[in-house]
């Protein structure tokens, strides 16, 4: 159906107002319409936004709540921890002063640890996800569009990266980085750890998205609209940016929304293995490590970071699903 | 003797989320009043009984060893520990776990025979007695027992014993004790003699016949017979000495032979048919087979021993003590009490100041005042896991111990920030920055957070440097290291004050245990005077007085917490006991209950 050609007079206005459904919409608008009708998507988006807000507003929360993530409350105030370093109060020392309880041993506030830990993890995961997407997009499109030898070499590079034992490599590589870049009389700077983590996660993460996009570009390269653009003398840059890329946004968005929770868990796993962020920077993954050590006497300390990560990852995955469904309703089950 | 650093890293699965019952019990027993004293919940540690060690006779030196009650021979015993032994060559042994293992495969001239709980006798191991001194203690003569053999059945001769000492001068021997080598030659013993491999022999050791060996020292050493008991003076066969390679495949003179060794994973031992119990007063060697497993953290080992199932019933550990996370459970469970061994550390533990870099004594004293001893103790697991000493010499092992408290640690164990600030204000730099190097284990990482938090309250900026655990002692042992403060432990090599202070404040060299780089002519002179004292009581009193004087006038260290080992063993293990000298569970009396 086509819209009647607008007549250059004001009398047509009521007509246009009567047929809003038939107004042309961009794929983005269509997606947004479909997404709004998906309750799962809305709820999970709400949860995800909540986590991001918590992460961004961590200092504000700390100010309102009146506790600092670095102060060792349990050690400075007698009576909070017993002789063995476990909280005296039930449920991991939960009270009106310490909402989520106290960390066994060091006696820090668990709520603040978690809020700041989420911030650390999300920052690293976001940075890694952005970089991975960018590198993945460039490599995928270049390989797919140029083809030939370039495609071959990028393809083999992807093979190598995908087959590399990344976790083992990161565990082995972390101390090397520290020895290379840190002066013996200086503490390892927090930014160096963060940058190294982001770099390594990126180095091993881009291959998947690149391979996917290469396939998409390959199948699109021979399609009529690209042929047409070529015939009309469009430059490769125009073809990539104006013809190919708009058709790739769907897989890119979906991949990125699935990538972010994967990066959060990867960062947590590395911290759990001892090569993530080190004390005293609060970290989500390290809270698990501590939680597994103390859970026999203080299960509460494991529950809060565990439940938070569980909710976050599930919500983000559901969000990714909803976004995909909204972009491409044909795929809907 | 160096003490290995501990850690308690857990790598357990997060299966516990399934237990999301949002109601967990409280952990009772906080200190009622903020008096800074120990709380009610940690059971008081039974008073430590220092071991009494006497010199035994030739009769005492005859085998076999005194059997533990209810002993059964046979069976397989499992030993689980965190790290594999970095050395097996007797000449390279100085770490307590390694010398402990060497009791199973290598023999020494003398050794310690357990006669009762905390009662030991120095007896002849390979020698018929503890040696005969002459020439005022300058010459020591030993006679080897009949029937002592290598694993291939060839007899152990005095030539082998001489060779074992000579080879410790070779350049590839980098660890191990150096007392006897210095007595035989010079303080810089490796310069005086380079080992027997180029054909040059050492004249100061004589072997008149196959059974007799004579050591001729430059100075009198009345306690030389104790020195020969160190695991680092274990013997090596001249005919089968493979130099560097011997570290991988040693030849056994003890009751067991290494059947299989997978580095960092496991060692399997089987009986040495040529070892005769009748010649050995020290080793019981009751199990038929030993399996040693490495690579597990103390937390996992403790969980295995607590569960006590299957082959773990016949398992024990040399050194993996209950980590802070499990202490409450282990000490609170009466069912585990019969399987729990407790022993405070005989080692002195210090946070050494690097005096080459920390030149202002006021700052050093300020750090001592601000030191969060109580908080560190809590992080380690409370009073049940660590005591807070205030002296350089260990209260448990020092005869004639006299306590003193220079930095108000008994009244303010949590640190006196005001006093520290006042001292810093008097010093040249009221806001100093110090580099604190630590062994990167989970527990040490937490303690570093505690130290940082406390010192920063006093206005001292702390730069924390994590060091790799395998090379920790190597890193802090460099004279030109770039750290200001680091932990180190030292224990007497034999029961004498002369093996503590003259060592930790002794010669400065890469790898030498003088980690504070304290160099003071007057002090060295004083120590030499004390060593030369003949009246033991006067000597002990002099060491104690010097202890206080050093901390008062120089302050080369912060006295660290003295850990208390709480170690479990499996329910079918008999004869397990923490050795009060080396602070590891001894293999000599272990047997498997049927």
What does this protein look like?
The complex is a heterodimer of chains A (333) and B (594). With 333 residues, chain A is mainly alpha-helical. Chain A is built from 14 helices and no strands. In chain A, helix 3 crosses helix 14 (300-327), helix 10 packs across helix 12 (236-272) and helix 12 (236-272) runs antiparallel to helix 14. In chain B, strand 9 (256-262) and strand 10 (266-271) form a beta hairpin. The model of chain B is unreliable at 5-23 and 29-45 (pLDDT under 50).
Name the descriptors.
heterodimer; A: 333 residues; mainly alpha; 14 helices; B: alpha+beta; five-stranded mixed β-sheet; globular
Task: Describe the structure concisely.
Chain A has 333 residues and is an all-alpha fold. Chain A contains 14 helices and no strands.
Helix content of chain A: over 70%
Uncertain stretches of 5 or more adjacent residues of chain A: 7-17
Multimeric state of these chains?
Answer: heterodimer
Question: What is the element string of chain A, with H for helices and E for strands?
Answer: HHHHHHHHHHHHHH
Mean pLDDT of chain B: 84
Tell me the total number of β-strands of chain A.
0
Structural class designation of chain B: alpha+beta
Counted beta strands of chain B = 22
Global geometry of chain B: globular
Question: How many helical stretches of chain B?
Answer: 15
Report, as a whole number of angstroms, the end-to-end distance of chain B: 36 Å
Percent of residues in beta strands of chain A: under 5%
Largest interface: A-B, 51 and 63 residues
Q: Tell me the structural class of chain A.
A: mainly alpha
Can you give the helix content of chain B as a percent range?
10-25%
* Rg from Cα of chain B: 24 Å
The major β-sheet of chain B equals: 5 strands, mixed
The number of distinct helices of chain A, counting runs of at least 4 residues, comes to 14
Q: State mean pLDDT of chain A (0 to 100 scale).
A: 82
